[in-house]
Amino acid sequence: MLVALRAGGLKLTPQRLAILRELADDPTHPTATELFSRLRAELPSMSFATVYNTLSALTEQGLCVARALEPGAVRFDPNVEPHDHAVCDSCGLVVDIAGRVRGGSPRTAEPVAGFAVRSVERVYRGWCADCSSRLERPTGAKQATGE
Amino acid sequence: MLVALRAGGLKLTPQRLAILRELADDPTHPTATELFSRLRAELPSMSFATVYNTLSALTEQGLCVARALEPGAVRFDPNVEPHDHAVCDSCGLVVDIAGRVRGGSPRTAEPVAGFAVRSVERVYRGWCADCSSRLERPTGAKQATGE
DNA sequence: ATGAGTGCAAATGCTTTGCATCCTG
DNA sequence: CAGGATGCAAAGCATTTGCACTCAT
Fold first, then answer.
1. pLDDT tens across the length of chain A (147 residues)
2. Is the separation of the CB atoms in B67 and B55 below 8 Å?
3. Assigned fold of A81-137
4. How far apart are CA A119 and CA B2, in angstroms?
């Protein structure tokens, strides 16, 4: 991954290394704000601008992807391959379903006339394990719309 | 739908009726800002606050859903049933795949241990018909990550 | 050394909120 | 006519940008 960084002509700064590590270690895909607060202890002088600059540089190099799974802040995913996610209605937790093997149905079929499909991803919504066990009807949950 | 509005204890104001109509007529799920600018001619005095107040009131009544399909503004969908969407990488167009019939595979299977699934939705990403025909590699498109 | 990268602060864009006024039911 | 809804303005977050300074190469 560091190789990829240099290959893109990017310099290896402590800020970038820390962000990269934090991203790689976290399957919940942290937001820019989350990264900033987590790294404040380690890099007290780092600014938001650096976090955003780094994340957009990484995104441009194809080393991570910005994902809009919920209204509000964007989450950054070091796994650039299309894959599925589960999102908790109650606490907002994002769970990566990267490892899941799916049936080999043709995924290049056009969902609508003329639309050239590049990727398909699923979003599972519901309650995470913690929220499921903690409450029958988790705080702040939208009323289930069923399916 | 008006019935549903009243059932929720909401008053029928011209602003709400206009927003509701605009929402219903538009399969691309407009953002709050888009609704505001479209209705400016019809309701010159309407404010952003009213658009947002109305949209959150509708959301609370289960008459629409806020969808985060792309970073930036949230889109509002009058179809509260889980369904699929296609999003253009180039121009950001959202296409509703509401009518698509899918195979009846068990969709309540847990994507990850302990996660209680409420709904599953797919997001197709690629190029819309317009962008596909206009360019070989549409302006502003992220490099295809393939699948 | 030299230009990319950082830090700071101001700016932007989307959304929310407080409050006085207005209008639907 | 009463309470909910609107309009206006200010405030709140997430994110972007400009610019002088610093540091990785």
1. 677 777 788 999 999 999 999 999 999 999 999 999 999 999 999 999 999 999 999 999 999 999 999 999 999 999 999 999 999 999 999 999 976 555 444 455 677 888 999 999 999 999 999 999 887 654 544 444 433
2. no
3. Dna Ligase; domain 1 (3.30.1490)
4. 38
Which residues pair with residue A125 across a beta bridge? A87, B119
B45: which nucleotide lies closest, measuring CA to C1'? D7
Task: Name the closest residue (CA) to the C1' of nucleotide D14.
Answer: A73
Residues lining strand D, beta carbon within 7 angstroms: A 6, 11-14, 31-33, 48-49, 52-53, 56, 72-74; B 9-11, 13, 15-16, 43, 45-50, 53-54, 57, 71
Å from B128 to nearest chain A CA? 5
Q: Where are the domains of chain A?
A: 1-80, 81-137
- A88 contacts on B by Cβ (under 8 Å): 115
**In CATH, what class is B1-80?**
mainly alpha
